[in-house]
Amino acid sequence: MKYYDSQAVVLSNEWVNDEYKHMVVFVGSEAATVEPGQFFNLMCPSTDKATPFFRRPMSTYFANSATGQIEFLYKVVGIGTEGLSTLQAQQTFKMLGPLGHGFNLKPTDKHILVLGRGVGLATLAPLAEYAASKNVRVTAILSAKDKERLMSQHRFADAKAAIIEVIDSDRSSAIDHVDALIRDVHHQQPIDAFFTCGSKRIGKLLQQLALELGIRGEVALEQNMACGIGMCHACVIAIKDQAQTQLVSKKVCKDGPVFDIREIVYE
Ligand SMILES: Cc1cc2nc3c(=O)[nH]c(=O)nc-3n(C[C@H](O)[C@H](O)[C@H](O)COP(=O)(O)OP(=O)(O)OC[C@H]3O[C@@H](n4cnc5c(N)ncnc54)[C@H](O)[C@@H]3O)c2cc1C
Ligand code: FES
Fold first, then answer.
1. Model ipTM value
2. Is 31 in contact with 4 (CB distance < 8 Å)?
3. Ligand 2 centroid to 197 CA: how many Å?
4. What residue ranges carry the coiled-coil annotation (predicted)?
5. Ligand 2: does its nearest atom lie under 6 Å from the Cβ of 203?
6. Counting atoms of ligand 1 from 1, which one is nearest the CA of 74?
7. Domains of the chain (ranges plus CATH)?
8. Rounded CA gap, 46 and 138, in Å?
9. 11-61 tens-digit pLDDT
């Protein structure tokens, strides 16, 4: 896969709530040709407090090769993302990508279920839109701490997804409730594949359901990274091989970040 070290121009970088920012950048049409689930490694600016040495990985929230624009939805959690949050329109920074392998839809897929939490929704929104463009029905379960932190509903609505919102504050996001919801959706129209990002708890549930119900599943993993291109081994994890009998080492940046959910080792 070809990637570019682009000089991105910031077009906007606004808060969407008290934790997340939405940034739109221009990188040109070649770098903005991105598959759902791929990511960029962003050089984050220094702040008064610190200089982030390594780049930080971010999924593409939206990419348009015609306009050359890319959007990110990111949570401000530490020195790198604090640096990103200071960027103003017209400032520039380097970003490397698109990187990694994205999600896989099969031509036979008729109905998929995407289940994301928090910033995982940023990773799944482009997949929902891509599936809709292929006339695949999408059911989207969106999970968050509370109503205020549920994001991106409009993106899933534009993809004509059947949206189910679950939140911690009324316990609708409890794992047994989500389990029952998924079984009900599958009963109404069989699900061909699950896709998830953003929560180990949800990943573990989907892995169990994938094995029990014989449904294909993929998860986009978040892992600390450095180079983002398979050189430094910072992102190596152990996953199960296809026969599920042995553990093998994989680089999340290069072999992923999207993996078959049955291969993941959840503690
Ligand atoms: C492929 C990929 C796609 C991602 N997409 C998004 C996205 O679309 N939006 C978004 O907000 N975040 C995303 N992340 C997570 C994002 O990379 C981290 O939040 C970011 O690197 C934190 O950097 P920091 O310097 O602000 O925080 P740090 O000071 O480095 O760390 C703050 C906290 O975040 C944790 N952390 C650091 N790096 C990661 C990481 N890579 N994954 C998970 N936790 C981490 C640390 O352990 C620590 O607890 C993605 C991660 C990966 C691997
Ligand atoms: S981040 Fe360097 S090998 Fe994956």
1. 0.93
2. yes
3. 19
4. none
5. no
6. 11
7. 4-99 (2.40.30.10), 111-263 (3.40.50.80)
8. 40
9. 999 999 889 999 999 999 999 999 999 999 999 999 988 899 999 999 999
Q: Which atom of ligand 2 is nearest to the CA of 57?
A: 1
Q: Which ligand is nearest to the CA of 230?
A: 2
Distance 77 CA to ligand 1 centre (A): 8
Residue 11 beta carbon below 6 angstroms from any ligand 2 atom: no
Label the pairing between strands 4-15 and 92-99. antiparallel
Residues constituting the chain: 267
**69 contacts: CB under 8 Å, gap ≥ 6:** 11, 24, 25, 26, 27, 32, 62, 63
DSSP-based three-state secondary structure for 155: helix
pLDDT at 79 > cutoff 80: yes
Distance 105 CA to ligand 1 centre (A): 26
Annotated binding-site members for [2Fe-2S] cluster: 227, 232, 235, 253
Q: Alpha-carbon dihedral of residues 149, 152, 154, 155, nearest 10 degrees?
A: -170
